[in-house]
Amino acid sequence: MAGDRKELANISEVNVPVDITGMRSTSGSVEQNISIQDYLPEGVFVLTDYAQVSLRIGIEKQMSRKVSIPVEDIKFASLADHLSAKILGDKSVVSITLQGISSVLDEINADDYSAYVDCEGLHKGKYRLKVHLDLGDSSAIVKTEFVTVKIDRDDGGSDTSNGSTEATEKPKATPAPSASDGSSQDEGDKE
Prior knowledge:
By secondary structure, the chain is mainly beta. The chain is built from two helices and 13 strands.
């Protein structure tokens, strides 16, 4: 391109509208030659070799695809640090239906997404949560499943036998040890 320096500095892309009215996935693709000069600001010119742009536009059919995700691969997003979670029930996989163009869906494999349930703001208890997939913008989730998630406190293995989270009784002071004659190691409460 050539032209006024200020005008050139303002150009980072050239948008060219293309009419695809009436095209269907069965009609294949359309090719058009466009004169780029028609879309440039006044005072900006294109060299003759680049004055025409060839566009080829393909229309692809939308399709659906079902993916199966092992339950053990579902992560717990936004789970508070002091909590632990597990999925209850006897399901070994959940199924999620995706929708998108065939060329994208055909290329999706298990390494391209991660499944999770959103635990943000949840506390100890049982919840029925929707399974989400991180896919980016390549396709949309049409149908998903729910799983039952149990959230507990993560006490590092020091679970009480009754499950109570109430504070225990304040410990009582014991008398200071005294010198003994060696006859007994532990005298306990003698009265």
